[in-house]
Amino acid sequence: MAPAESQTKYIFVTGGVTSSLGKGIISASLAKLLQARGYSATIQKLDPYINIDPGTLNPYEHGECYVTEDGAETDLDLGHYERFLNVPTSQANNVTTGRIYQSVIEKERRGDYLGETVQVIPHITDEIKQSIKLLGKNKQFDFVITEIGGTVGDIESLPYVEAIRQLRWELGKNCLVIHLTLVPYLAAAKELKTKPTQHSVKTMQEYGVQPDILVCRTEKHLNDGIRNKIALFCNVSSRDVIESIDTDSIYRVPMLMLEEQLDLRVLNKTNMKSDQQPELSAWKNFLDHLKNPDCDVSIALVGKYVELMDAYKSIIESLIHAGTTNKCNVNIKMVHSEHIENGNESIILKNVSGVIVAPGFGERGIEGKIAAITYARTHKIPFLGICLGMQCATIEFAQNVLNLKGAHSYEMMPNTPYPIISMMEEQKKVNIKGGTMRLGAYKCKLDLESKAFSIYKQETISERHRHRYEFNNYFLKDFEKHGMVASGINPESGLVEIMELKNHPWFVGVQFHPEYKSTVARPHPLFVEFVKAAMDFKK
Ligand code: GLN
């Protein structure tokens, strides 16, 4: 057990200068280091947009929608938190402005404010503070790290910065602000520039918040001169100017932060003991394997958002975890499903040793996904279908093996004569989009003779979901007779969770999202075995 003071410490991570500096990774890295020193930590993301959650946002807007055990549709940064810490997050770990306002407006309608004028300060800021403190309740965690989305200076993040200002007064030493900024390198002048950081800190100061620690994202090392200059202009000590240099893997950032002593500075400022050295041997082992693979393998990821790496973040990270476990570098070939047409799949998928068909919604790109599956099935290439990818695999099988002409999903073709994928019964009553899918963790029972069981090595598993449609059990007998079997079933509803092909070295479709549960400490067995199968195929 860690030596800890009795009070939960609240750490805020804000961002300045520009978005995409990696606040999520810095927050996760700091939490990782604190965890490695024996402290418990959780991370929360506050997003300043009006959507209640990112569930209704399309991936072009916001990248992947991550799903927690309790069925919250959340920001993709929560995926990083779980992958780094190996601790599940929940609804409480992601709050948006929309949710804050919704709650305040509900209270106003109930009459909770007893006739007061309801205002941004104090009502909205109180609601924000309450969401932050909720995670610190009952002293569940030594550290609650709260990442504020967006960039300081944006109109929409103002109430959050104001809430931090108020909390600093309330919490004193139990509260700390880390501000992440950019120190750009001007190639023409051959110089790193500190002015954007100075301005960004000034903006914070105008709002009444003095950052305690500055983490400076940079592509060149910060020398002492630069550190001293930033310290001088920004009211911090030069030890609190932390360099965050560009690196080839997000998983290296905790080690970089350790070298820069970010964790020590945090412990020192919050009066927490730092005599326990961080236990990072497993993490270092992972980095070692990541850096020195014995082989490499190419895997195609077929989807319709491939121009956007963030859209499939968790799948990509799961493949990195699985590759590292197998000491194999996984080369991910992003394949746009709309680019698979007129029989060109044999060219596009020529040198790959595995095919993943990604989750998704709507009919765009479906034909390309189905063609890719035919190719993987008939060429015995290892195949993993996730959610829509599994649904497409059953449609492909119905069309091409069972010869059911026009077989399809009710989602894309409501008048199909063979609705292989139909709408789940409880979804038929649903008429609003937000938060109404089958979401979060559900149990699945595996057939003991199946590939799935040989992968999981346990009879009952639990995985996370996000869907409205399901395999239509009316057709199951016919499928099984022809070699595609349901090897995983939800014990309560009989819903098909896993389909696999018998006469194929590795062909598995899953209705759930295994990618949400893969972490550095616990790479997901489905991905690990899939990569292994791809390595075998290559041989
Ligand atoms: N669109 C499909 C459904 O709702 C698949 C969803 C997904 O891939 N996440 O069932």
Radius of gyration: 25 Å
How many distinct helices? 18
Indicate the overall shape: globular
Report the span from N to C terminus: 47 Å
Bound molecules: glutamine
Strand order of the largest sheet: 13-12-14-15-23-22-21-18-19
Unreliable spans are 1-5
Secondary structure class reads: alpha/beta
Percent strand equals 15-25%
Number of strands: 23
Compute the average pLDDT.
95
> Biggest sheet: strands, sense, closure?
9 strands, mixed
Helix content: 25-40%
Fold blueprint:
Layout (H helix, E strand, L loop, with lengths): L8 E7 L7 H14 L4 E7 L11 H4 L3 E2 L5 E2 L2 H9 L8 E3 H14 L9 H15 L8 E6 L9 H14 L3 E8 L2 E2 L4 E2 L2 H12 L6 E6 L5 H11 L6 E5 L7 H7 L2 H8 L11 H11 L3 E9 L9 H13 L2 E9 L8 H4 L5 E4 L8 H13 L4 E4 L1 H13 L6 E3 L8 E6 L14 E9 L4 H6 L3 E8 L1 E3 L4 H6 L2 E6 L6 E6 L5 E4 L14 H14 L1
Parallel strand pairs: 1-6, 1-7, 2-5, 2-6, 7-10, 10-11, 12-13, 12-14, 14-15, 15-23, 16-17
Antiparallel strand pairs: 3-4, 8-9, 17-20, 18-19, 18-21, 21-22, 22-23
The chain binds glutamine.
The site of glutamine (GLN) has 10 residues, from strand 19.
What's the gist of this structure?
The protein has 539 residues and is an alpha/beta fold. The protein is built from 18 helices and 23 strands. Helix 11 (281-291) crosses helix 12 (313-325).
Commentary on this structure:
The protein is of the alpha/beta class and 539 residues long. The chain contains 18 helices and 23 strands. Helix 5 (120-134) crosses helix 6 (158-171) and helix 14 (366-378) crosses helix 15 (388-400). It starts with 8 loop residues before the first strand and ends with a helix. Residues 1-5 have low confidence and may be disordered.
